[in-house]
Amino acid sequence: MKVSIEDMAALERQNYVAMQPMVAVTPGVELILRDDVIITSSQVFPTPDANHACLLRATRETAPALIAEVVEHFTSRELPPTVFVSPACAPEELPAFLEAQGFVRQKEREAWMVLEKAEDLVRSTPSARVEVHSIDKSEAMTFAGVFLKAFGMPEEYATPLAEVMSPSIGLPGMFHYVATFDGEPLGVCTLICHKDLAIVGSAGVIANRRGLKVLSGLTTTVYNDAFAWGCKRALLQTTAGAPFERFLRIAGFKTYFTRTCYTLA
User: Fold this and answer.
1) Within 13 Å of residue 259, how many CA atoms lie on the same side as its CB?
2) Measured between alpha carbons, how far is residue 174 from residues 48, 216, 255, 259 in Å?
3) What is the distance between the alpha carbons of residues 264 and 81, in angstroms, rounded to a whole number?
């Protein structure tokens, strides 16, 4: 589908603007929103999702200096410099400028997918054995444990992850969900409602327990809550070409654009 560069830029920016209330209460997390760049960083989790620059909008003359500034931001915090390049970035030669400064293009791309209207969501029948609920702070460790297993991350991150996310639990328009199958926690998801946009993230199911309609249960609950909140459309990011992208297409989502990750070698 055809999406204008300015619509891509607006969507990408809104995603980060929506994170501001969460960032404000989360220890060790920093978010910089400028006209020429967006930077997010976390001292707790040195992963590209939490630490990257994006929406760089420079000229051929100013791009090298902006890239150098991004590198300085991360290296001064002893974090790996990472830049996500979308079609809304400028100049067109930005990837070449990044590679000239030692950045390496990563193989995986990030798909930004949008459900344009609530009625476009293709709902599957949830299993009666799956229950989904929005958690309170007492369940932060449960959420953290399932999240780490779902994404294949070390379990020792559970306590710091729970501590980092706890302050944002209960913020207006922000929800953290746990899905259980016969009472066993197997899936998680987050939701941020910002203006007309429902931003869905951290959606995952423990690998060896997939195929039990846990994800369908999460999808149904999350979007019912989002559209009851007043959201008109939904945004979700996933790995381009992954099975989950196909699932989202079947559910009614469309790929608006993809972002490519560059890391400093």
Assistant:
1) 26
2) 22, 20, 24, 25
3) 6
Let me know the angle formed at the C-alpha of 163 by 129 and 175, rounded to the nearest 5 degrees.
Answer: 45
| Structure token pair of residue 210 | 């997939």
CA distance 29 to 41: 6
Q: pLDDT (tens digit, 9 = 90+) per residue, 43-87?
A: 888 788 899 999 999 999 999 999 999 999 999 999 999 999 999
CA distance 15 to 81: 21
Average pLDDT over every residue of 210-224 = 82
Task: Supply 188's token pair.
Answer: 């998680």
Residues pairing with 130 in the sheet? 181
CA–CA gap between residue 83 and residue 104 (Å, rounded): 10
> Tokens 């203006």, residue?
195
Q: How far apart are CA 249 and CA 75, in angstroms?
A: 38
Q: Which strands make up the sheet holding 38-42, listed edge to edge?
A: 29-33, 38-42, 52-54, 82-85, 254-264, 103-115, 233-239, 197-205, 184-194, 174-181, 130-134
Q: What are phi and psi of 252, to 5 degrees?
A: 115, 0
Give the number of other CB atoms < 10 A from CB of residue 75: 12
Q: Is the pTM of this model over 0.90?
A: yes
* Joined tokens for residue 254: 């469309």
Res 197: pLDDT = 96
